Amino acid sequence: MNKAHFMRDRVLGIDRELPLLDGSTVRYVNLDNAASTPPLVDVMRALEEFMPYYSSVHRGSGFKSRLSTRAYDEAHEVVAELVGADTRRNTVVFLRNSTEAINKVSHCLPEGSLVVTTVMEHHSNDLPWRDHHRVIHAGSTPEGRLDMDHLEEVLGENAGDVSLVAVAGASNVTGFIQPVHSIARSAHDIGAKILVDCAQLAPHRRIDVLPDDDEAHLDFVVLSAHKMYAPFGTGALVGPTDFFLEGGPDVSGGGTVKAVTLDGVHWQGMPKRGEAGSPNVPGAVAMAVAAKVLMEVGFDRIEEHESALASYAMGRLKDVEGITIYGDTSETDFQDRVGVIPFNLEGINHFLLTAILGFEGGVGTRSGCFCAHPYVLHLLGLSPEQLEDWKAGLIAGDVPEVAGMVRISLGCYSSREDVDRLMEMLDRINAGDYVGSYRKSDGICMFVPDGFPDPAEGYLRFW
Ligand SMILES: Cc1ncc(COP(=O)(O)O)c(C=O)c1O
Fold it and tell me: Which residues contact 124 (CB under 8 A, 6 or more apart)?
């Protein structure tokens, strides 16, 4: 395969020509893969093949039910294979997304447990712990890296008390990859388990939970299918079967029980006990197909392509006039970082910048605080007064005005041409070379061009 076009024929819709503000069309460039990835062609094909056979799973005795049940059950095995989990002692649970998976672990931990997490987390790996437990946040260095000394200090000071260490495999703001196996060793040393939120890591790097008896073993791993080229409403939690069997299920109902009488309930084993209600069978099949494709393509090749492209993007971004790139920019080989780069351009609001990129450049990016407010605020280095203003602005609903940043995030199919389009647009924006006059909006975008109809309105209407 031509290296420049790595994976481009395997991902659906990435060469779509879409309208710009001036009525012209351009190939859409998606640089928002950390939010959600487009589906793989193989995933779509598998679903097209599967759906005519789709039927109820578990207990249905018809041909389609038997087939659907087998596909659903085997999808668990494929996800276990993706992360190297030993299913004799670990279970894969399919849930809606990473957020639900982390909430499940939080609900299953005894109330009031001590959880150590970091200030770098997505809210989904922070708030679920705050809801039910005591939480300590390990800090971040001024360059935005995890402060390992602080983390070790927190673990040492609370040895024997910490139940769980919860860290992201890779940050959704800076892409920094955490040394999860060495953190696992430290957690196990003090009697804690580790949960790794792999929502951002899984599409880019091979994850290996390692054997259960290895000190560096990852106890819980959380995955999001919509960030792994299978956006059909599924996430997965991999964790020790015994842990889930300790109490009743966190969510009860159909599917979780063996027998129910008016005065008693006998719960199912795992994973059924952990997957209340009718499961999302197509979502699980899609996720498993995507996992198979990623394994077959090989994470070495994915990493090689993405790291080279991210280095290229970083090199070019550094030359853009008036740019501030957040986080450590000293290492540019992207060995311990996935392709996520946050920045701001001097003199232009981050929401406005992404609006112009979208409306006039056909480039999809994201701006704001990326559901990781403490980390973004740390990177922005706001003064206490600015922080108060930021909070007041958000609470008052004046979202477009609050501090934040722009984020680009690469996928395995991203190309130099994609990065070049972004650069061309940033130069144009710096030169004031755009047609719209943008006003604040409380719609999908925080800024919209005045007097222009949104070309996406009326496009692809189903109802
Ligand atoms: C690091 C990280 N964790 C968790 C989540 C939440 O993922 P989901 O949408 O699957 O709940 C995200 C989503 O952006 C994320 O980036």
Answer: 98, 99, 102, 197, 199, 371
Ligand 1 probe mutation, 124, 177, 366, most atoms within 8 A of CB: 124
Q: What is the 193 CA–ligand 1 centroid distance (Å)?
A: 21
pLDDT, tens digit (0-9, with 9 covering 90-100), for 340-394: 999 999 999 999 999 999 999 999 999 999 999 999 999 999 998 999 999 999 9
CB 93 within 8 A of CB 101: yes
Does the pLDDT value for residue 314 go beyond 90? yes
* pLDDT band at residue 451 using 50, 70 and 90 as cut-offs: confident
Residue 247 is predicted with a pLDDT of 82
Q: What are the residue numbers of the active site?
A: 371
Closest ligand 1 atom to 35 CA:
14
Residue with CA at minimum distance from ligand 1 atom 7: 98
Above 70 in pLDDT, residue 171? yes
DSSP 257-289: EEEEETTEEEE--TTGGGS-SS--HHHHHHHHH
Q: How far is the CA of 371 from the centre of ligand 1 (A)?
A: 9
Give 245's contacts (C-beta < 8 A, 6+ positions apart): 269, 270, 273
> Could you tell me the distance, in angstroms and rounded to a whole number, from the CA of residue 370 to the centre of ligand 1?
10
State the chain's mean pLDDT as an integer. 96
CB atoms within 10 A of CB 373: 17
Among the atoms of ligand 1, which is closest to the Cα of residue 197?
Answer: 3
Nearest CA to ligand 1 atom 16: 172
Residue ranges around ligand 1 (CB below 6 Å)? 97-99, 122, 124-125, 168, 172, 197, 199-200, 224, 235
CB 223 within 8 A of CB 199: yes
Pocket test for ligand 1, best of 99, 171, 366 (most atoms within 8 A of CB): 99
Strand-pair partners of 440: 447
Q: Indicate the pLDDT class of residue 1, thresholds 50, 70 and 90.
A: very low
The atom number, within ligand 1, closest to the CA of 224 reads 10
Domains of the chain: 3-37+298-449 (3.90.1150.10), 54-296 (3.40.640.10)
